[in-house]
Amino acid sequence: MRVRGLGVEQIIRLLGGTCCPLARGPQRVFLAVCDHFEPDWGGASEGVRRERVARWVQDFPRSVDGLADSRGRPPQHTFFFPLEEYRPQLLDQLAQLCHGGWGEVEVHLHHDGETAPQLRDRLEWFRDTLHREHGLLHRDPQGRIRYGFIHGNWALNNSHPDGRWCGVNDELTVLRETGCYADFTMPAAPHPAQTRIINKIYYSSSTPERPKSHDRGTPARVGSSPPKDSLLLIQGPLGLDWGDRKAGLIPRLENGDLHAGRPPSPRRLDLWLRAGVGVQGCPEWRFIKLHAHGAKPANADVLLGAPMRALHQELARRAADDPEFRYYYVTAREMADLVHAAEERTDDPSDVFS
């Protein structure tokens, strides 16, 4: 039986009353920008693809020049690169940027009608290729290559209502067994693949019999261990932005998407903080996982330009005004490590970064 997708009205009802108050006292904010980085967007030619990647390699360090978080580290960017768009030269360029200390590359995938064995083979190939050919991804203490994941078309675990854009009900199992340390797909709203679980960091497992298993799961908690045979899912903020609109009008959806029509702002930062995404039992640590499609030229203008720089400056201003407010730029992998540190109740985030 297929789990139905959520419509816009259902999402709005689901979001009612989900806003958390801004924290008082010590506050540690971890910010990760997870980019669905698609150089092929719009059917781009080879030359355009190269130009899009080259722009990021050249402009990202310049765009964050002089900016630093509470430990003196510059902003980070995580490029979730599409498996189906693999081109060695483009990955070599991104690897150069990442090896310079500006971020990391992880795995993105658009697929349709695939079987679990087919998916396993492709993920293993891409995982090994990124690591061996380009020096990307990381090995865990046991020597296994690990990767973060974002599903294309939001259809993780075959969750699209019409059954398209995946095909694998047991996708979480395949991801976990091939070295995925966490999924970063959600939120999908207003897409109907959105889960009923929102603003959470949690664990879920999957089975071949049922799609959209990540519609349910176990929250990450201080003092608890991951459930057996489960995968960590780190969601970004999802809420309602009523703005200055008159009562009775439909509010704007806040889903953590950074794009030309919705640039970052101090108001959005407040909404991300109020979403309260974190590990249960550790309310002073707030995780802000944002997403973008940064290869699109108009979106790159935002991410590499004044709007994103203004967000970084706003964070610095808040930290200067409040000695108990500290913020940290992290990659997707580091965010997952911080989740586990919170579960183990590590008091100092610097323990994770050392």
Explain the overall architecture:
- The chain has one domain (8-353): TIM Barrel.
- 32% of the residues lie in helices and 19% in strands.
- The protein has 10 helices and 14 strands.
- It has helices spanning 8-15, 46-63, 88-102, 116-134, 171-177, 266-274, 297-303, 306-321, 332-343, 350-353; strands at 27-36, 77-82, 103-109, 138-139, 145-151, 180-183, 201-204, 218-219, 231-234, 239-241, 252-254, 257-258, 285-292, 325-329.
- Strands 1, 2, 3, 4, 5, 6, 12, 13 and 14 form a 9-stranded mixed beta sheet that branches. Strands 8-7-9 form a 3-stranded antiparallel beta sheet.
- The chain is globular, with a radius of gyration of 19 Å.
- 45% of the residues are buried.
Write the layout of secondary structure elements.
Elements: H1 8-15, E1 27-36, H2 46-63, E2 77-82, H3 88-102, E3 103-109, H4 116-134, E4 138-139, E5 145-151, H5 171-177, E6 180-183, E7 201-204, E8 218-219, E9 231-234, E10 239-241, E11 252-254, E12 257-258, H6 266-274, E13 285-292, H7 297-303, H8 306-321, E14 325-329, H9 332-343, H10 350-353
Parallel strand pairs: 1-2, 1-13, 1-14, 2-3, 3-5, 5-6, 12-13
Antiparallel strand pairs: 4-5, 7-8, 7-9, 10-11
Helix pairs in contact: 2-3
